[in-house]
Structure formats: structure tokens, C-alpha cells
Write a structure and sequence with these properties.
Two copies of one chain form a homodimer. Chain A is built from nine helices and 15 strands. With about 325 residues, chain A is α/β, with parallel strands linked by helices. Chain A folds into two domains: about 1-175 and about 215-235, NAD(P)-binding Rossmann-like Domain (Rossmann fold), CATH 3.40.50.720; about 180-210 and about 240-280 and about 295-314, UDP-galactose 4-epimerase, domain 1 (Alpha-Beta Complex). In chain A, helix 1 (about 10-20) crosses helix 6, helix 3 (about 90-110) runs parallel beside helix 4 and helix 5 packs parallel to helix 9.
């Protein structure tokens, strides 16, 4: 199969390229290198079924031209702004990188008769919802522009699906961590300690508890959903049933860094506007297909801390 | 209060301007005259508290400049593409006119500290949902680009609301009819009979039954929600509890036209891709505030047929 992976040199996208190449597919990775890096896919450089294209998927003529050149059977759309905190100051980041990338792709797929789309959505579409959130939860009131950009994307994915027969697989997931991560709390904590090994300042009081998903577990879920589910619209929550507190993460990073920093907590239970302090959601649908994460949230944190601290102090 | 009404020379927007002026507010109506007309607000020309500005609200610098010139206390955002059938061939119409108008406004409100937004959404955000649909219904899977553009708008309205303290009133309503209508089934039927008084071709078999809402009843509901509800996010379904079939409408138009046309029905129960054949939804929330429509769906149809046929054959 000829597959386009947008954000293919990014964190999740590059892992996905690895698995798709292993399965024998031909893969074009499109990336604008805002968050992705050539290093993330350097190991695929001599792979004849892999091609890396530098482009911005929100550029509609460029995206259309790419589809004109290569007839794709399926698109994995991973490109997005993944830095929720940043977009508070500039909402256009999520308009352009999270939403307009999706619209640009959908319109190219429509014009070039590409009928399958796998989309990386987010648990942030639910906003601050109570209880164990299922995929059919309502109302959907995202409180971050990132969540809004993903929900806006989902909205047009379903309307394009109905209008032009495009089938979709949408996974909604929380914080993803692991090797090649480009952002997120562990990445930020390591960066702070690199700049000042004597102290680690934490936004909020450390009590925020969220599920952290290891990247290989996520990629396995995305591919399983794509393999096993065959509705017009296939939506799956993906995430571990366990959570990790910010305190646990801060202390794990501090310990691994080895500089015995003073860990300083802030006030309140959220790190920034749009941050959701606690949530849990129902992953029964993806589990019914046979998915289980190989890492609890705390295991995913510890493994990622090892990798990121190792890379930073090497 | 200084109020901006986008789409203010349009069908619903112009009626809203009338009511807001009556209440003593100062109103700026912004319209690009794609669907709106100067005739719709000609009766307000000598009103000192009314101003008509020709502009496209999706033009972000122009919108920003308007807010820089006039400090608005509240925005009524009515501008949108309202022709669902048209956007199948060109989804960019709903991207630009339905969604990007909203984003442009939100970003101007953020920068100019405007804190109140009243938004005209649609029952199309629900897609093809079973049962009596409440405001907290999930999942939301719009099947028209119009519904997608409105849901995408709602998504960013809630994230801007959370990030910058913008309060919103969102009404979701079905087909609205009445004087100054610029589109819709009655408008189309009258247009067909003007071109050929001997026959009236109907898309679908005529069995589609939908609620039709008279424009004055809708405007009353929008203003009541704004007056009486004071949450951060206020969402209301609005519509009559009754429905009208396409057959009823076709026969009413044919009879009023007086040319004894042959009414020819098509096949199937939907008129176009993205058309939703039957739905009903729960309006208990707006009724709890005291709202009741003054017209049943059939009464709204008959009154609109009189107005539009009268204007056509005059």
C-alpha cells in the first residue's frame, strides 16, 4: 500500500513510519520540521520504500501537488501543533498546524480519490468532562485550542467522509511519551535541569494525575484499530488505565538527573490555562479488539525519563 | 450596548438588527452581501444607532480594524454559508464563510477584550442521530460541511471562552423560514415555478419531515437565551416540536402559485448528500426559559409560502 504519513519525521509519526515500513508498505513522510527532525528518520535513509518530503501540509497547493505525484491508498495524519501551552498566546498556531493541515489533506484526498484516513486526535476534545469518558460522550467542549483544532478536524473528517466516501480511523489519546519526544512535561523538566541542575520548578502543586501512554503502545493501538475495525467512522479512546502524578514525574526526573536538585512546586492543580488537572476515560472499545498497553503510566514515565535524561547528560 | 451583528444584512441577521435597535442598542451590521442584501436593512437607513459596513468577516485584518474603531460589548455572529447543498462541490465555502469567519471574530475579540458572543449554530452539528436529541448529545458527527463548519466554530468558541474569558450563547436550530429568506426549500420551489410554471420537480420522494422555524420565533429565542441564561457556555436547541413534509411544502407552493403545476417527486428520502431525512430534538432547555414558538412548522411554511410567492408573482 502507498501511504502518506504527515508529521512523519515527528515523535509519533516517525515510530509509525518504522512499523509501516516493517509491514511492507511504501511510505512518504511529509514534515515541515517545526517539531519533527531529520534525525528521527535518519535510520530509514537507505530504505527504498521510504521517502522524506519537506513541506507544510497546511499549504493546499503543495499538498494537492503531492497527491498528484503519488497516488496514496491511505493517509496517516499525525501533523499538528502538539504544544498546548504555547497556543494560548497565539491561537493561530492551532488554527494552522492542527486544523488547516487536516482540511488541506481532506481536500486533496477528495480531489485525488484517496479513501482512507487514519487520524491522531486527542482526549482534549472532551474538555473537562466528569466520569469515565466514552467515545460517544457529549457535550464536547474543548478548553484548549489544541483540543478545539482536533475537534474541528474530526468534524470535517466526518463531513468529508459522508460526502466523498472517505473512511476514517480516529484515535483519541492523552499525553504520549517515549523516545524522540519533542515536547511534554518530562521533556520540559529535563530541559530545565540542563539549564539549572540545582533546582526544578514545577507548574502547579504536583497533584495533577494523568495517564501517560508509551509511544509504542499508542502506535500498536492505531494499527490495530486500522486492521480490525471497518465502520465508516471508527473512533477509539486509547490510553492506559493508570495515571501518574506530576510529583512522581518531577521526582523521577530529578533522581535520574543525579544532581540532587531542589524540587519546587507551585500553587493550584493546573499548570496552565487549558490544562486539565484530572481525567480518566473508557478504553473498552480498543481493548475489545485485543489491545493492552505494555507499560503502565508510571512505567512509561520511568522508561521515558531514562531515555531523555540519558540523551541529555550523555 | 454596542453590538456587532455579522451577516447583519442577511435573512436572520437583519431581523435581529431590528429587535436590537428596538431595544435601544447601537448596532453595526457587517455583511459581505454574498447572501445578505441592502434591501433587507433599507428600513434602518435613517436610524442613527444603526450602521451598515460592507466587509468579509473572514478577513482578519479588516475584522481587527473594525474592533479597533468601535469597542463592541457583544457580538451576534450570524454570518455563514447557509446553502448546505452548494458546499458539496466546494467545501472551501464552509471553511471560509462558516468557520473562518468565526475564528477571525474570536481572534479580534481576544485582542480587543470583547467578552460576549452570541452564535447561530445548527442542528446539523448532531449529524444523523437517533431519538430526541438533547444539547449534551454525543457523539457529534456532522455529515454536511455546513454542520462541520458550525461544530468547528463551537469548538474554538469554547476554547477561546476558557482562555480569554469570553462568554457565549449558542443556539442550534433547524431550517429557518420567513420573510427575507435567501435560500431553502420554499425559496427554491418558488424559483423553479418562476422559471417553469407548468411543473415542480422535487428532490427525493417528498417524505422528508423536518421542523421549520419561523424567523421571528428564532430571534425571540436567541434574545431570550441571551437575557436569561448566564453560564460561561450557554447552549440551546431551538425549534418547533412539529415537522412539515416536503410533500406538504411542495403542494402549498404549487397551490399558492396558482398555475396548477404538475408536482413531480423523485426517489429516496433525501434530497442531496448531507441532507438528513428525519430528525427531532429536545427543546426543553429553551422552553424552561419561557420560550414557545408562535407558529407550528406547517404554519411557518404556509406563512412563508404566502410571503415568497407573493413577492415572486407581484
Amino acid at each position: 500500500m502507498h501511504i502518506l504519513v504527515t508529521g512523519g519525521a515527528g515523535f509519533i509519526g516517525s515510530h509509525l513510519c518504522d512499523r509501516l515500513i516493517e509491514r511492507g508498505h511504501s511510505v512518504v513522510a511529509a514534515d515541515n520540521f517545526h517539531l519533527g527532525t531529520r534525525a528521527n528518520v535518519a535510520h530509514l535513509a537507505n530504505e527504498p520504500r521510504f521517502e522524506l518530503v519537506e513541506m507544510d501540509v497546511s499549504d493546499r497547493p503543495a499538498t494537492n501537488a503531492l497527491f498528484g505525484r503519488t497516488p496514496f491508498d491511505c493517509v496517516f495524519h499525525m501533523a499538528a501543533n502538539s504544544d498546548i501551552a504555547r497556543s494560548h498566546a497565539d491561537p493561530s498556531v492551532d488554527l494552522n498546524n492542527t486544523f488547516l493541515t487536516t482540511f488541506s489533506l481532506l481536500d486533496a484526498m477528495r480531489q485525488h480519490d484517496c479513501k482512507k484516513l487514519v487520524f491522531a486526535s486527542t482526549s482534549a476534545v472532551y474538555g473537562e468532562a466528569p466520569g469515565r469518558i466514552r467515545e460517544d460522550h457529549g457535550p464536547l467542549r474543548p478548553i484548549s485550542h489544541y483540543g478545539a483544532g482536533k475537534l474541528a478536524s474530526e468534524a470535517f473528517i466526518t463531513s468529508f467522509g459522508e460526502n466523498y466516501g472517505i473512511q476514517c480511523w480516529i484515535t483519541r489519546f492523552p499525553n504520549v511519551i517515549g523516545d524522540r519526544a519533542t515536547h511534554g512535561v518530562i521533556y520540559d523538566f529535563v530541559g530545565k535541569l540542563v539549564r539549572d541542575p540545582s533546582r526544578l520548578q514545577v507548574l502547579g502543586d504536583g497533584s495533577q494525575a494523568k495517564p501517560y501512554l508509551f509511544v509504542s503502545d499508542l502506535v500498536a493501538a492505531i494499527l490495530l484499530a486500522w486492521d480490525k475495525s471497518d465502520e465508516k467512522v471508527n473512533v477509539f479512546n486509547v490510553g492506559p488505565s493508570t495515571t501518574s502524578t506530576v510529583r512522581f514525574i518531577a521526582e523521577a526526573v530529578a533522581k535520574a538527573f543525579g544532581s540532587d536538585p531542589k524540587v519546587e512546586f507551585g500553587q493550584g492543580n493546573r499548570g496552565w490555562i487549558g490544562d486539565i488537572p484530572r481525567f480518566e476515560y473508557d478504553t473498552g472499545r480498543i481493548e475489545a479488539l485485543g489491545w493492552r498497553p505494555n507499560h503502565t503510566s508510571d512505567e512509561a514515565v520511568l522508561k521515558t525519563v531514562d531515555i531523555l535524561v540519558g540523551a541529555a547528560i550523555r
